[in-house]
């Protein structure tokens, strides 16, 4: 199956669910407890990381300190929070090939399957009436101290210089002529991430069912610097004339000295998102961004 394709859900006799909440959101503890009560009453087995579980009503969930063990044990993951929580959960779950359902407790919730006000739709999940959507991820490779390190992103990789310092960036697709940008930084985004930082930097919106790598300069010092969309098989090298910082999905980061480069390509793993209601991409885009136009 290719990223962006759909797989029909399967009804489980006992559905094992890992709950990943963001308790910094308003009323998140009460809302998470409400979702847990609903799922527990329906016969689901619920799991949560130990440091989160102290906020949940006793008797509802099983808790462990090893998140990877929980990811192996569960059938699906439910993330309660904003886009950051959902993206973070999807990236963790991708390593274990587990799908994620996002319940929006934040403002935008572009990657969420449902709003909290729609939690009655969780019955579709329990009945096997859902689809799993595969979306491509990015992998970035860089060498630091003689050791190659790899980072993964559902949304984007951002390469930038020191605070408020412009750099000369070289973006070279494998076997191609380097492209040059004088800018604050460069964003390499997936189609899913095209509506995140890349959109704010002037990049195009890409249907998430497609496979491509979007390169967008940040505050380019040029009248003619434009974003470029590469195909998913591209191997893209980014370097600069100064110290660079690499950040994956706003989380993992790495500092590279001048002369070092970052290689960005499509990841071998996909992010798996559960969809339990029928909505077209354009409908989601209009609904989520209409208040920001």
How would you explain this protein's 3D organization?
Helix content is 19%, strand content 39%. Strands 1, 8, 9, 11, 12, 16 and 19 form a seven-stranded antiparallel beta sheet that branches. It starts with 5 loop residues before the first strand and ends with a helix. The chain has helices spanning 28-41, 50-53, 67-73, 83-94, 122-126, 197-200, 281-289; strands spanning 6-8, 16-21, 45-49, 62-64, 76-81, 100-104, 114-115, 131-144, 147-153, 156-160, 167-173, 179-183, 185-189, 212-218, 228-231, 236-240, 244-248, 252-256, 261-275. The model has no long low-confidence stretch (mean pLDDT 91). The protein folds into two domains: 6-130 and 276-292, 3-Layer(aba) Sandwich (Rossmann fold), CATH 3.40.50; 137-268, Tumour Suppressor Smad4, CATH 2.60.200. It has 293 residues and is α+β, with helices and mostly antiparallel strands.
Name of the CATH homologous superfamily of the largest domain? Probable inorganic polyphosphate/atp-NAD kinase, domain 1
* N-to-C series of helices and strands: EEHEHEHEHEEHEEEEEEHEEEEEEH
What is the level-2 CATH architecture name of the largest domain? Answer: 3-Layer(aba) Sandwich
- CATH first level of the largest domain: Alpha Beta
Estimated radius of gyration: 20 Å
Distance between the termini: 35 Å
Number of domains: 2
Looking at the structure, the CATH topology of the largest domain is Rossmann fold
Number of strands: 19
The dominant shape is elongated
Number of helices: 7
Give the overall pLDDT as a whole number.
91
Largest sheet: 7 strands, antiparallel
**Unreliable runs:** none
Please identify the structural class as seen in this structure.
alpha+beta
Portion in beta strands: 35-45%
Helix content: 10-25%
């Amino acid at each position: 199956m290719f990223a962006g394709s759909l797989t029909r859900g399967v009804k489980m006799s006992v559905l094992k669910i890992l709950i990943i909440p963001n308790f910094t959101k308003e009323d998140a503890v009460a809302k998470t407890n409400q979702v847990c009560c609903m799922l527990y009453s329906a016969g689901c087995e619920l799991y949560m990381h130990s440091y989160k579980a102290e906020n949940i009503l006793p008797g509802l969930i099983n808790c462990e300190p090893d998140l990877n063990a929980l990811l192996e044990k569960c059938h699906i993951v439910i993330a309660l929070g904003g886009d950051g929580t959902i993206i973070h959960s999807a990236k963790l779950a991708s390593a274990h090939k587990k799908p994620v359902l996002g319940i929006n407790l934040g403002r935008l919730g572009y990657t969420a399957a449902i709003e909290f006000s729609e939690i009655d739709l969780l019955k579709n999940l329990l009945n096997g009436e859902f689809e799993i959507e595969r979306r491509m991820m990015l992998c970035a490779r860089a060498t630091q101290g003689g050791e190659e390190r790899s980072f993964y992103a559902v949304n984007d990789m951002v390469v930038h210089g020191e605070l408020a310092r412009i750099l000369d960036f070289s973006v070279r697709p494998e076997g191609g002529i380097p492209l040059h940008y004088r800018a604050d930084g460069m964003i390499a985004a997936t189609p899913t991430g095209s509506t995140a930082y890349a959109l704010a930097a002037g990049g195009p919106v890409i249907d998430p069912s497609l496979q491509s790598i979007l390169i967008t300069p940040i505050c380019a010092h040029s009248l003619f610097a434009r974003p470029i969309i590469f195909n998913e098989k591209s191997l893209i090298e980014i370097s600069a004339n100064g110290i660079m910082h690499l950040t994956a999905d706003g989380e993992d980061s790495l500092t590279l000295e001048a002369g070092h480069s970052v290689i960005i390509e499509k990841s071998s793993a996909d992010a798996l998102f559960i969809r339990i209601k029928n909505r077209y991409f354009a409908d989601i885009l209009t609904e989520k961004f209409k208040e920001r136009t």
